[in-house]
Design a protein that fits this description.
Elements lengths: L1 H17 L15 E3 L4 E3 L12 E10 L6 E7 L2 E3 L8 E3 L10 E3 L8 E11 L7 E13 L6 H44 L1
Parallel strand pairs: 1-9
Antiparallel strand pairs: 2-7, 3-4, 3-8, 4-5, 6-7, 8-9
């Protein structure tokens, strides 16, 4: 019993020493490019900080570029989110995170006129003792507004594969049940033959 306890203590201590504390990870993903008329749409803009221990002043500006290539500022984040004067007024919501890595914007009640190019410009100025380097990122989202949502091909494939797998597993289970039933029947017959012989 003492050996078992000692082995358990050594195993747990080795496990605790070898496992690191997990940290959150930032992944820069792409935004959806299709919106459905009358529904809300999230414009995803993620700009990861490579080192979160470095302080940075972050400024974010969202622009809308309709078909005629003029750039209209619609939203900005400078010490807090602020909606700018445009025909989007009252339909924009800040969906960003507190650490300012997710800088996303939500448009409520999408209209046909909302089709076009959306640009998320991120400016970060890092705070060091002797110098202040800065970086600028630009994410471009081409948004197309549709009357009805289109079916995602990946979702269709996964649904078909799910049903194929269900049918296959059901058939396999039936074959296994028949095999086990036959095996048990033969064992019973042999046991009865042995008793009566």
């Amino acid at each position: 019993m003492r050996t078992l306890t000692r082995a358990l203590v050594h195993t747990v201590s080795l496990l605790l020493l070898s496992v690191r504390v997990s940290q959150a990870v930032c992944v820069e993903g792409l935004s959806d490019t299709e919106a459905v008329l009358g529904h809300p749409m999230k414009l995803t803009c993620i700009s990861c900080l490579k080192r979160e221990d470095i302080r940075a002043v972050t400024r974010v500006t969202w622009y809308y570029e309709p078909r005629d290539d003029q750039s209209i500022p619609i939203y900005e984040y400078v010490d807090g989110p602020r909606e700018l004067e445009s025909w989007f007024k009252g339909r924009l919501q800040w969906e960003g995170s507190k650490d300012l890595q997710d800088l996303s914007l939500r448009i409520t009640n999408i209209t046909v006129n909302d089709s076009g190019v959306y640009v998320c410009e991120v400016f970060r100025q890092f705070e060091f003792d002797f110098f202040t380097p800065s970086i600028a990122n630009r994410r471009v989202i081409q948004l197309e507004v549709k009357k009805e949502a289109t079916r995602d091909v990946t979702a269709l494939y996964s649904e078909v594969m799910m049903y194929v797998l269900l049918v296959f597993l059901t058939l396999w289970l039936l074959v296994e049940m028949a095999y086990c039933y036959r095996k048990i029947s033969k064992a019973d017959e042999q046991a009865q033959d042995a008793v009566y012989s």
